[in-house]
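NHL repeat-containing protein, Streptacidiphilus monticola. Tokens?
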Amino acid sequence: MRRRHQLLLVATVLTCMAAGGIPNAGGSERHPTLLTQDGVVRSGTTPLPSMQVALLEAGTRSGGHPRVLARGCTGVDGRFHLRYRRPTEPGATLYLTADGGAGLRLAAALGVTAAGDIVVNERTTVAAGYSFAQFMRGGEVAGESPGVPNAAAISHNMADVRTGSVAPLLGAPPNGAQTSTLAAFNTLADLLAVCARGRGCDALLRLAQPPGGPRPADSFQAVADIARAPGNHVAALFALARTEVVYRPVLRAAPDAWTLALRYDGNGHEVNGPGNIAFDAAGNAWVSNNYRYALNPLHTVCGGRSVLALSPTGADLPGAPYPGGGLYGPGFGIAVDRSGRAWVSNFGFQGKGCPVDPSQHDHSFSAFAADGRALSPATGWRFGDISQPQGTVADRAGNIWIANCGNRSVTRIPDGHPAAARNLPLAGTGLVKPFDIAIDAQGRAWVTGNGSDNVVELAPNGRPLRTVTPPGLHRPLGIASDTEGNLWVADNQVLPVPCEGNTTADLAAALHKSPGGGRRPGVVMIRPNGTPAPAPFTNGGLVLPWGVAIDGDDHVWVANFGGQRLAELCGARVSSCPPGYRTGQPISPPATGYGSDGLVRNTGVQIDPSGNVWLANNWKTVPIQTNPGGHQLVVFVGVAAPVRTPLAGPPQRP
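Tokens:
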């Protein structure tokens, strides 16, 4: 194997010589009309000479191809110097590859701005491979904006291309030593070190081949394939990584799956009990926040009075978090409409002992402009008989729908005009404790009844159409619609929503209860004609399921209020699932889901335009009721098919 690697290295050297020599950085005359990119290619701290380096502009549409801006080779010190013309495409996303033969390809995502002198190594390759995972085919990066440029920016949360080291966000709290993600990241980098240090890449390329997919031709594509199928050959990949330990800290045992989950906490003192997430057209995350920030769980907190707004990399948007607009203790209800306005429903959450009367606030909803300006008055908007509102969604016609958990109704806001809001009494449907809403492709609204164990279908104008009572459904929570018109419902089984007489203390007391009749929490599918599947889909990845999201391939993603895990199920479009899978079958490991010690108790789950899955760390694992809120958003990088945002009905590919 080593002899073959040496022969290929000789071939690479000859290729570099044929291309005009092996230049050292700074050894070429600079042309005044050209830009330059300098850097070094390394494995750990070892320079890699005779690597063929290419600077590329990512393709701007799905199925497109990148454009080569410059080529060159590394010198004996591993350094390279490239000259290129400025890309004509506005906001072009640039990345570098370095090929060494035998399937070795290292890479680094540069993004849309100049990166200066950079390092390309195993860490930058893992960061780029995971971030670009949903846009890579055949070793090429191509896809629509904002997904691709956001992905490049997110890669810089894991690896610093200026130094080749771990990026500050991954290396420090709330990441760093507080979770296992840093160790998993380094272990993946060691997989590439095996490939880069003379052992050859055959084992890596073989183990990274996704089920039903082609074998990757190089190590960069292999990383992307691992990111997209993180449960594939987990133990064997871990064993291979242990043969060449270059980076530390590393995992001591094989993980459940090769996921990389980053925790975001904004400015570090604002996130407390995030309930749900909604993305705007640029991929920024707007987040409902249950409580005012306080770190001490014994310190009583009152309701949150600002909406969080984070960039795709987890930084606050300018001026965020945004106060005002009558916000108080929002829960699961947040949506961004197609004009960019954020709608937040005020449930009145607060910690035990807060002196505020929540009933003065839980009959309103708020709205914010795209720049964070509050559009609603200081008391919020109180039209449409709002009562303890929860799930909030926008449809494609611009209407806003709000589930009123406190009075068995739904409020519909036509064309986003608050004063025209109309309450839809649903007493005749049997709906109790309306919690979440999904809009299907026909504009119909489907509402879960946490207290009535059913789902109610409403016409686009709000007229009740039917009540669906799936067998075994109990305490349903989140709901989402797929592209084929199916509805997917979180069948929680045990948790009562704290409205209509129930409190958060009741919800906390129910955390350790077991479902009756030997049933298990799961997910229920309802077909477009209202016919439920014969039985819920259950597996070990589903523990107190709460939020549900559908990705661009119609895979079903479920947040869990227990178990510290994210679940992925094969949806109704089985052609997009691994070969042989059937609807409802877990794609994530069936015994564990995608586990992460960065998770606590999760409610909202949503998918962004780069294919990242975001979860809301809503409550602590041990939720002391004075201040039970979790303090982060958790982002699983590159695991899902991207979704066009803002979401207004079933998912659409960007």
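The longest strand covers residues 35-43.
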